[in-house]
Design a protein that fits this description.
The chain has one domain: Heat Shock Protein 90 (2-Layer Sandwich), CATH 3.30.565. A hairpin with a 2-residue loop joins strand 4 and strand 5. It is built from three helices and five strands, in the order βααββαββ. A five-stranded antiparallel β-sheet has the order 1-2-3-5-4, covered by helices on one side. With 125 residues, the protein is an alpha+beta fold. The protein is globular and about 35 Å long. Helix 2 packs antiparallel against helix 3.
């Protein structure tokens, strides 16, 4: 099962993509707890792509059995690294820390057209 969403460079796209993924996960029979984590982490990688990447942007979500892989492609080439020493009162900087903490695996692929940030979750099944 697969979901592909083209993402425009507007912050309201985060909400639209969250809803699209949540609907797809529901259709695929993914439970609420797993869905909530996947939607949260997707919000983080989509937000980062909009803020720091550039067009073209596209989200892919694939479910194979209990393995979910979500990836966000964008046209940016800047390095992707978690923010060091995030202040407790900072408005941002925790997104990749959440991805790292809550996913089974995550990473970044760099290519000629830009980069891809991805994460994988092992679902409860």
């Amino acid at each position: 099962m697969e979901l592909v969403e083209t993402v425009r460079g507007e912050t309201r796209e985060v909400s639209r993509v969250r809803h699209a993924l949540a609907a797809a996960l529901s259709d695929w029979g993914v439970g609420d707890d797993d869905s909530d984590v996947a939607v949260l982490l997707t919000s983080e990688i989509v937000t980062n792509a909009i803020r720091y990447g550039g067009p073209p942007m596209e989200l892919h979500a694939e479910l194979h059995g209990v393995d979910l892989r979500v990836s966000m492609d964008d046209g940016g080439h800047d390095p992707v690294v978690p923010t060091e020493n995030v202040r407790w009162d900072a408005r941002g900087g925790r997104g990749l820390h959440l991805v790292e903490a809550l996913s089974n695996r995550w990473g970044v692929l760099n290519g000629g057209r830009g980069k891809q940030v991805w994460f994988e979750l092992k679902l409860a099944g």
